[in-house]
Amino acid sequence: MKVGSSPASERREALTDVLRRARGCVRCAELAATRQNVVFGAGNADADLMFVGEAPGAREDELGLPFVGRAGKLLEQLLGEIGLERADVFIANVLKCRPPSNRDPLPAEIANCSEYLMAQVDLIAPRVICTLGNFATKLLRSDTAGITRVHGRAEVHQIGPRSVRLYPIYHPAAALYTPRMLEVLREDFAGLPALLAQPAPAQPLSEPTLPVLPPSGQDGSTSASTSASPGPDSTELAAESEPGRAPEPGQMELF
Ligand code: SF4
Prior knowledge:
Blueprint (H helix, E strand, L loop, with lengths): L7 H16 L5 H6 L7 E2 L5 E5 L4 H6 L6 H12 L8 E4 L13 H18 L3 E5 L1 H8 L5 H4 L4 E5 L2 E8 L2 H4 L3 H11 L2 H6 L36 H7 L15
Parallel strand pairs: 2-3, 2-4, 4-6
Antiparallel strand pairs: 1-3, 5-6
Helix pairs in contact: 1-5
The structure holds iron/sulfur cluster.
The site of iron/sulfur cluster (SF4) has 15 residues, from helix 2 and helix 5.
């Protein structure tokens, strides 16, 4: 069992509940109206290594899976170079829905969606989180320092109730067309095995508990932007859920 967390089976079940909830989420009115799929994240729900990117792109939105385009292929290639594969890690984004025309996430959207990411971190309980690019790095470091300044340097941060080693690196999409950036990304990736070999950081003293998202209608969404709307009501959530039967884990790309 991971230090300071519940058994993997319980955490996985709770993660599936968070996923179901995210699938019905309409906190960001514009994104909810234009998305094809909520891209919750995929991978090993008990991974030691988690990647957090920015937001789904067109292909991810179409398939409902993160990092399935060229940047995803590069991520898989870099993982392979350090002896890992996609099934070893969990991959998620700051936003679970695609911003139209791949525009930058808005601050209110990031605030709306961060609860899902925090629940993912708490339930997966990774020892290392690689933030990919500026948006994930600034959010999880709670700092405005950009990726150029902080990439390749691991720091222990408290994310929600957990202490995690954060390791910011460039977003693979930024390295697709810039050989120098790909070189830096590859150098930073090479630091991951040593980081994963380190013991988990000491956890804050508390009993392990499963995170509970607020009930629908009281979900804490912000209305700081015109793109944000009140949280999902029970009708919307009911429309998303499968009556009487939970989705199979394989359908949700959680394993
Ligand atoms: S908070 Fe916004 S981006 Fe996140 S799942 Fe809900 S509608 Fe999508």
